[in-house]
Amino acid sequence: MSLGEKVRTIRKSHELNQKEFALRIGVSQGTLSDIERGVCLPSCETIIALRNRFHCDLNWLLADDEYVSSTEVRISSEESELLSIFRSLPHHEKNELLEIVQIKKRKKKYPNTD
Fold first, then answer.
1. What is this structure's pTM?
2. pLDDT, tens digit, for every residue of 63-113?
3. How many CB atoms lie within 10 A of CB 47?
């Protein structure tokens, strides 16, 4: 997932249109559109605004999707998409989703993959 796609994911997860989201991160709607389409990259100030206003992980936002964390664990595109969506969720929704997954895991008795 490109940087622009990640920005779009953050915006959509907060159910904001481009105009509303652009106002919150201090750019014009046109600039946001260009960022989301990959025409241009966000400035450092815009990236900091994304982190501060939407609590997104800068490692996720700026890193190559094929690698996660400093251990460079290779992940599939499905795992990358799931992680991207999860990271863009508000904190209370992350907790709710984790509870659902834990319940599902207990019901199905999946082996521990830790």
1. 0.60
2. 865 544 444 556 677 777 788 888 888 888 888 998 988 888 888 765 565
3. 18
**31-61 pLDDT tens trace:** 999 999 999 999 999 999 999 998 888 888 8
Q: Residue 37 is part of which domain span?
A: 3-89
d(CA 94, CA 76): 21
The SS3 assignment for 67 reads strand
Does some domain include residue 113? Answer: no
Determine, yes or no, domain membership for 102.
no
Q: How far apart are CA 4 and CA 38, in angstroms?
A: 5
Which residue in 13, 70, 6, 71 sits closest to 36, CA to CA? 6
Task: List CB contacts of 5: < 8 A, sequence separation 6 or more.
Answer: 36, 38
Contacts of residue 21, defined as CB under 8 A and 6 or more positions apart, other chains included, come to 11, 14, 32
